[in-house]
Write a structure and sequence with these properties.
Elements: H1 3-11, H2 34-45, E1 49-50, H3 58-65, E2 70-73, H4 81-98, E3 102-108, H5 109-119, H6 142-160, E4 167-172, H7 176-190, H8 192-206, H9 215-241, H10 248-271, H11 276-299, E5 305-308, H12 311-314, H13 330-338, E6 342-356, E7 365-369, H14 377-384, E8 388-392, H15 397-402, E9 407-410, H16 421-425, E10 426-429, H17 431-434, E11 437-444
Parallel strand pairs: 2-5, 2-6, 3-4, 3-5, 6-11
Antiparallel strand pairs: 1-8, 6-7, 8-11, 9-10
Helix pairs in contact: 2-14, 3-4, 4-6, 7-8, 7-10, 8-9, 9-10, 10-11, 11-13
């Protein structure tokens, strides 16, 4: 694997996925002749449904989502304003018209807990304050802030009327130490003996080093550490299963224990060059499943959840070259588990600006997207000539014909590298199988961070 691929893959360990990179770019889709391309464009022009405003005209989109209980909304970049606005407005409609009560973000569990406390009226202040660490602009931006303001008002009214409010939860597991301390704090209040067992098991996580230079000894220590983390997760799982009251604090401890166990596994697998991507997406799928179970027990009603994450997580990996590398995705697992009760939404753009760093771990800056590559879906959608549209994919015959073959799909994470556009930001995909609905905004704009770096030029 080229050094740049290794570097960018490893950078994903510190936050949402930096980039999803191609493993078979030498075998990219063959060129399509002019007449054949024109036929595909004409077919798409008959299939797409124009969207007329920034919110994306959610009413017809709700009809396509139907009775789905888990709606996953992707984004082709982590820094596009229209993607956040579309997800926010569609989520608002799902909450108001279809009774959705949870939003799961591609952010850390413990960071989202602060937002949940504010939204539930348990504390005051900035609901997004927990997301102040890197990469803060993915959630601490003006579009998400405005949505959180609306959600806070919605929840306040719901409390007055005795209705369930909407919670915000994190799917990720980067803050292992903070989650370990949160588990111990919760157990200190309800079961000091259990808290002491957690302290012993989490010692290997909270200490700064293994204490040994011998490789075999370190491996043994790591196996012992992970066994203890698994024991703690199992103990809390049993405790939550036996909790007739479905206590939120106890459930929070369980998910923090899952963060510790699976976050440590991710780092261990990554260090040995294994399939760390799969550890992360399986963790996200477990959080979604746990959340549904908990909310249904607590509220006595079917739980409906919206997921906001990158399209590389939301889409079905079986329809992309990820499958060739043995990688799975959150969307794939959720779709296999819930069938038609899951609905996968992708978002794409052809051109515009994006908030992204130039190096892994760097500050965001406004960058201009290069025009979509000719052999990409984005270039094909640009030729459709409709500025904003929805493309239904769940009833696939016509869409499959129009989108036949394997084309390139652009995916930008925290970093944008226009100088290596094709190698760094495109994967091969079969879009009609990857999502249930695709929303395309031809020209988009950079999301605006709440804290602008020095030299920020919108």
């Amino acid at each position: 694997m080229p050094d740049i691929v290794k570097t960018l893959r490893q950078a994903g360990a510190r936050g949402p996925l930096v980039l999803l990179l191609g493993f078979a770019l030498s075998a990219c889709s063959p060129g399509v002749s002019g007449p054949e391309r024109a036929r595909k464009v004409a077919a798409l022009q008959g299939l797409v449904e124009p969207l007329t405003d920034d919110a994306g005209s959610p009413e017809p989109l709700l009809q396509k989502i139907g009775d789905a209980e888990v709606v996953l909304m992707g984004d082709a970049t982590h820094g596009t304003r229209e993607f956040y606005a579309l997800r926010a407005e569609l989520t608002r409609q799902l909450i108001e018209q279809k009774g959705f009560t949870a939003i799961a973000l591609e952010g850390d569990w413990i960071d989202a807990r602060q937002a949940n406390d504010v939204l539930a009226g348990r504390s005051a202040g900035d609901a997004l304050a927990g997301f102040a660490g890197y990469p803060s602009w993915t959630w601490r931006n003006t579009t998400v802030r405005d949505f959180m303001d609306w959600l806070s008002q919605y929840n306040a009214t719901a409390r007055q009327e005795g209705r369930p409010g909407v919670g915000v939860y994190g799917l990720d597991f980067n803050r292992i130490g903070s989650s370990a301390r949160a588990v111990m704090t919760t157990l200190d209040a309800i079961d000091p003996a259990a808290a002491e067992r957690a302290r012993q098991r989490y010692g290997c996580v909270l200490s700064s080093s293994s204490g040994s230079d011998d490789d075999d000894t370190r491996k043994l220590e790591e196996r012992t550490c992970q066994a203890g983390l698994a024991d703690e997760l199992s103990e809390l799982s049993s405790r939550v299963a036996g909790d007739a009251g479905a206590d939120d604090a106890l459930f929070d401890a369980l998910e923090n224990a899952r963060v510790v166990k699976e976050g440590r596994s991710y780092l261990s697998v990554q260090a040995t060059g294994g399939a760390s991507w799969n550890v992360r997406d399986l963790h996200m799928a477990s959080v979604v499943n746990d959340l549904r179970t908990h909310l249904e027990r607590r509220d006595g009603a079917p739980a409906r959840i919206v997921v906001w994450a990158h399209s590389s997580h939301v889409g079905d990996a079986q329809a992309t070259e990820m499958a060739q590398a043995g990688e799975i995705s959150l969307g794939q697992v959720v779709r296999s588990r819930y069938g038609d009760r899951a609905f996968l939404v992708g978002l794409s753009t052809s051109s515009g600006t994006v908030s992204a760093a130039s190096v892994a771990g760097g500050l965001p800056e406004v960058q201009r997207l290069r025009p979509a590559l000719t052999e990409s879906y984005e270039a094909l959608f640009h030729q459709v000539g409709t500025p904003r549209f929805a493309l239904p994919l769940r009833d696939p015959p016509a869409a499959n014909d129009a989108l036949s073959g394997q084309w390139l799909e652009r995916q930008v994470g925290l970093v944008y590298l226009p100088q290596t556009e094709r190698e760094s930001h495109y994967v091969e995909a079969r879009l009609a199988e990857q999502f249930d609905l695709l929303i395309h905004v031809d020209e988009t704009h950079a999301v605006e961070p709440l804290e602008r770096p020095d030299g920020w030029v919108p």
